[in-house]
Structure formats: structure tokens, C-alpha cells
């Protein structure tokens, strides 16, 4: 039972972290709970469908269907995070023009909740289908089902608790730093996702360059340890990155930092040219 | 047919790398165990491993060392591409049955 709980927990913490961060980013937006809940709900149904068609998806594209789907899901999430950051940039400028307070605009609810709800949904979709398949496997296997199933549910509950921990940890940050902190988190999240996406494209056989391993830090911090997994989601930690992963990570991070810099009031580049 | 397709794809896409075409290996999963539990592959090359899950339940072939994470439905096959690998030992597991499904890949 505990084994099942651990496996499910390991699968859901990634989505849990992302939900926690998105909830913190949107903490003052009215009805954000609804958006996030809708993202989770729709994606959970989607995860069930994905699990149902797992075999067909895997067989698609000469056996690379699963890798391509993962790469696409991660790619879309990265674009959504960029869109969110861009929107904030534009909003920051509107704000400066109207001399309004940032806090008021954040509460105005005009932020791109759909983009963030989608990021949440995509994370749940990716991890959720694995949880569904795992639980299905337990049920299909028959023996001692109920205790294993209870374990799975325990893992889910622990994942939810972890989400709450992430959220309350973030909102405990003093208000004047929280915007900066969540912006950095979102930039690192996007960079990590982009690096993961290119690895899936590599695994699918679409990319065949820069696949050499750069270093191996698995003896220091193994990626499949709990801390390794958390850092993998949070900052894109990989214990054996390839050249392409590092390049993608750095590029995405630079783009996100550039967008975030424009978004931060008072730190915008000179607008003399406008 | 699928085999031939995969091979063609491998050939077509590896033009930029040193190796020509990925070498193919097979593994099966039976009673939540890998058979064989140890495979040897050439280092420095793209390698394709066909994993055949003969159990009725799904399994997730996972190895952070090999950068692979792939769900394999019950009674079905999946292809994973790894490498180019530096010489060494690389562990892999069936994540849904990690206590029994363990294996090692040796690149040499």
C-alpha cells in the first residue's frame, strides 16, 4: 500500500508544484480558483482519455507518438508561460501610463488566467495519465486491490497537501517580493520545460544533434530522488544534461528574463525611442 | 512493417551523427521482471531498444540515467531510443513495479 502511495505521490508532485505556483501567482485575482479547478478537472478527464488510448498514441508516428505528445504538451506550456509574462509586460506599461498601483491592477482580474489554467491543465494531463495507468494496472491485477488502491489515494492526498504547502509557502513571502519571486519561478519553470521538451524530441528521433552528455551529477544529487524530482520541476535540474538541453534551457531563461524585465515596473528599458 | 519503418526513420535521421542507423536491441517484461536483466550495447552510438510488455498490465520504462520515460500498455511493445552513451552502467526500472522490474544497460 505504501509503495503505491509513493509512486502516485512521485507522479503528482510535479503537477502539484505547478498548481501551487500558479495559485500563488494569481493569489489576488477573483475567481482564479474556478479557472484553476477547471484546468485540473478538464485535464483529469483528458488524462483518463490519454490512458485509454495509451497504446494507440505510443504506436503513432513510428512508435514515437508518446514522445511527440509530451514534447507538444511541454512546448505549449512554455508558450503559455511566455504569453503570461508578455501580458504582464504590456500591463505594466499601461499601469505606468495611468499611474495606477500594481496591486490594484493585479486584483482587477484582467490577467491571462486562461493561459495559466492551461499550464496547470497540461501539467495534470501529463502526470495524470501515468497515475491513471498505474491505478488501472493495480485494479487489473486483481490481488489485494483495495489496499493498493487506498495507497494510490493516499498518494494523491499527499500530493494535494504538497500543493497546499507550496502555495502557503509562496504567499508567506512579503508582498513586495512575491512578484519578483514568482516571476523568477515561472522563468525557471519554462526553461526546465523547454529543456525537457527538446529531450523528448531527441527521444522521438526528430533531433539528432548535440546529444552529448555535458556532465554527470547523479552521484551528488540523483534526479530520481525526491529532492532531484522537485528541483527537476522547479528549476529544470537534470543530472546528465545534453548540450542541446543546456542551450535550450539558457535560451529560454534569457527570453523569460528579458520579458520579465520589461514587465517589472521601474526597471523597464528607456522608452525614449517610442 | 513497423520495424522497417523505424529502421528507415533511424537511417534517415542519423545522417548528421557519426553512426549510420541505430542498432536494435530487445527486452521483454514478464511477471513484472525484465528479460534479460542486463543488456550490452555499443557506446557512442544511437541505440534502439524495443521493449515488449508481455504482462496484461501497463508498465513505465524509466531511467533518468538513459533519459527515458515511456509508458508501455499491457500486451504491447514500445521503442525507446538512447545514446550516444559514454561507456558505463545505466540502471533502468519498470516504475510501476520498481521492486521487481529492474535492469541494467552496459555501454561498452
Describe the structure.
The complex is a heterodimer of chains A (274) and B (108). By secondary structure, chain A is mainly alpha-helical. Helices cover 77% and strands 0% of the residues of chain A. Chain A contains ten helices and no strands. Chain A has helices spanning 2-25, 32-52, 54-63, 65-98, 102-107, 113-141, 145-171, 175-204, 226-235, 243-263. Chain B is mostly beta strands and 108 residues long. Chain A binds chain B through residues 3, 7, 54-55, 58-59, 62-64, 66-67, 129-130, 133-134, 136-138, 140-141, 199, 202-206, 208-209, 211-213, 218, 222-224, 228, 239-240, 242, and chain B through 2, 5-6, 9-10, 13-17, 46, 56-60, 62, 64-65, 67-68, 70-74, 76, 78-81, 83-86, 95-96, 98-99.
Note the topology.
The complex is a heterodimer of chains A (274) and B (108).
Chain A: H1 2-25, H2 32-52, H3 54-63, H4 65-98, H5 102-107, H6 113-141, H7 145-171, H8 175-204, H9 226-235, H10 243-263
Helix pairs in contact in A: 1-6, 1-7, 1-8, 1-9, 2-6, 3-4, 4-6, 4-8, 4-10, 6-7, 8-9, 8-10
Chain B: H1 2-13, E1 23-30, E2 33-35, E3 38-41, E4 47-53, E5 59-63, E6 68-72, E7 76-82, E8 88-94, E9 102-107
Parallel strand pairs in B: 1-4, 3-9
Antiparallel strand pairs in B: 1-2, 4-7, 5-6, 5-8, 8-9
Amino acid at each position: 500500500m505504501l509503495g503505491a502511495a509513493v509512486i502516485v505521490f512521485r507522479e503528482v508532485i510535479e503537477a502539484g508544484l505547478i498548481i501551487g505556483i500558479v495559485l500563488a501567482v494569481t493569489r489576488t485575482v477573483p475567481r482564479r480558483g474556478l479557472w484553476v479547478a477547471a484546468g485540473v478537472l478538464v485535464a483529469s478527464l483528458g488524462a483518463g482519455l490519454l490512458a485509454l488510448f495509451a497504446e494507440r498514441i505510443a504506436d503513432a508516428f513510428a512508435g514515437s507518438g508518446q514522445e511527440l505528445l509530451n514534447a507538444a504538451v511541454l512546448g505549449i506550456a512554455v508558450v503559455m508561460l511566455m504569453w503570461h509574462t508578455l501580458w504582464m509586460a504590456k500591463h505594466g506599461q499601461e499601469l505606468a501610463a495611468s499611474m495606477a498601483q500594481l496591486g490594484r491592477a493585479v486584483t482587477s482580474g484582467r490577467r491571462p488566467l486562461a493561459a495559466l489554467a492551461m499550464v496547470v491543465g497540461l501539467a495534470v494531463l501529463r502526470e495524470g495519465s501515468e497515475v491513471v495507468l498505474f491505478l488501472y494496472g493495480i485494479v487489473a491485477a486483481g490481488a489485494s486491490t483495495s489496499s493498493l488502491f487506498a495507497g494510490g489515494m493516499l498518494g494523491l492526498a499527499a500530493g494535494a497537501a504538497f500543493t497546499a504547502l507550496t502555495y502557503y509557502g509562496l504567499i508567506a513571502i512579503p508582498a513586495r517580493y512575491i512578484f519578483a519571486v514568482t516571476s523568477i519561478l515561472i522563468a525557471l519553470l519554462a526553461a526546465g520545460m523547454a529543456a525537457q521538451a527538446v529531450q523528448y524530441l531527441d527521444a522521438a528521433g526528430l533531433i539528432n544533434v548535440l546529444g552529448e552528455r555535458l556532465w554527470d551529477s547523479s552521484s551528488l544529487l540523483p534526479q530520481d530522488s525526491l529532492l532531484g524530482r522537485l528541483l527537476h520541476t522547479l528549476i529544470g535540474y537534470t543530472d546528465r544534461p545534453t548540450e542541446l538541453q543546456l542551450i535550450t534551457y539558457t535560451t529560454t531563461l534569457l527570453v523569460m528574463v528579458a520579458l520579465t524585465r520589461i514587465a517589472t515596473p521601474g526597471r523597464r528599458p528607456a522608452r525614449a525611442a517610442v | 512493417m513497423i520495424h522497417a519503418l523505424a529502421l528507415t526513420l533511424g537511417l534517415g535521421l542519423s545522417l548528421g551523427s557519426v553512426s549510420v542507423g541505430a542498432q536494435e536491441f530487445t527486452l521483454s517484461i514478464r511477471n513484472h521482471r525484465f528479460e534479460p536483466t542486463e543488456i550490452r550495447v555499443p557506446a557512442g552510438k544511437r541505440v534502439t531498444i524495443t521493449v515488449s510488455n508481455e504482462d496484461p498490465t501497463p508498465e513505465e520504462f524509466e531511467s533518468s540515467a538513459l533519459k527515458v520515460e515511456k509508458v508501455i500498455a499491457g500486451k504491447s511493445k514500445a521503442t525507446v531510443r538512447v545514446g550516444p552513451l559514454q561507456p558505463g552502467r545505466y540502471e533502468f526500472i519498470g516504475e510501476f513495479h520498481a521492486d521487481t522490474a529492474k535492469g541494467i544497460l552496459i555501454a561498452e
